[in-house]
Amino acid sequence: MKGFVFHGTGKSAWEEVPDPGIKDPTDVIVRVDAVTICGTDLHILKGDVPEVPSGTVLGHEAVGEIVETGSDVRTVRPGDRVLVSCITACGRCRFCREAAYGQCRGGGGWILGHLIDGTQAEYVRVPYADLSVHPLPGGLTSQDAVLFADIFPTAYEVGVMNGAVRPGDTVAVVGAGPIGLAAILTAKLCSPERIIAVDLADSRLEAARRLGADAVVPVRDDPEQLVSDLTDGLGADVVIEAVGVPESFEMCTRMVRPGGHVANVGVHGRPATLHLEDLWIKNVTITTGLVDTSSTPTLLRMAASGRLPTTSLVTHTFSLDQMEEAYEVFAHAADTGALKIVLGEPPHDELAVPAA
């Protein structure tokens, strides 16, 4: 089969790789029908995630069909259409027992496309399948469903839930890429008074407004002043950092009100300054985190019922063998207008699946 292989900083290729096989009785093999590219994949290619070994197939998000199961798998069987979660959960360690699957110490956590071969291939082995793949509701297309492998649970859990968004809040989302846009959509579930989106790119701000942001502001137009003006000088109740650079994190800490929350979602490759000389007196809560995906089943049901629109986030589609071209488009999003890219062909009978 073919997969997209990382060969060290700045080096990668769509090339022949060995077919995956069952290694442990809790494994499944999934034929990939749809896969997407994450900003974290770009961080890996830049060298920001040094623990990824050369020769690893990248990718941690996919939709596909189970083609083989290990002897201990109980919840899925060959022929099932599933979502492959970005997080793998052993189900037995302390953290899994607390539903903190992202911190799994039993061989799970973020391993796909990180510590083991990932999903950007024609087939993928998924360990601990009973908690790490999700049967899909009927009628939910692969293009929609694949967005729930990572960006929606990440935005909701690490941004909205960690940020403790409540009815009536002012929420500022710094970074209107896929995660930031998903944060806007899921923050709306909590009935905030207003959502303010901040980004460098006008095209992303237009997408943010289309998806429900009440105000948008480019970085060049002093977003901190806008937040102050809209909150009578108080600051935002919740600020969600969805970029992953020092400048955006530090901006977030200046935007938040006393007693407010800064929820960092972005993947940082460089140190950021924490200005405790200003923050110590403000009762500010700063959270970080890797998604646990405990919300994935709920979010999938909401998507299937039409409560969470998704296709408006997908701007480009490619076949799997166009992986290298897709990476180029995604890596130059400021020029291409790319938000979320989906690769792969849906199964011919996908839309004929009966509703659950």
From TrEMBL:
Listed EC numbers: 1.1.1.-
Ranges where the Enoyl reductase (ER) domain occurs: 8-343
Uppermost EC category: oxidoreductase
Gene3D superfamilies listed in its UniProt record: Medium-chain alcohol dehydrogenases, catalytic domain, NAD(P)-binding Rossmann-like Domain
Pfam family, one: ADH_N
Single GO term (MF): zinc ion binding
Cofactor: Zn(2+)
PROSITE patterns on file: ADH_ZINC (PS00059)
Keyword vocabulary terms for this entry: Metal-binding, Oxidoreductase, Zinc
Family annotation (InterPro entries): ADH-like_C, ADH-like_N, ADH_Zn_CS, ER, GroES-like_sf, NAD(P)-bd_dom_sf
Entry similarity comment: Belongs to the zinc-containing alcohol dehydrogenase family.
Name of the featured protein: Alcohol dehydrogenase
Native source species: Streptomyces luteogriseus
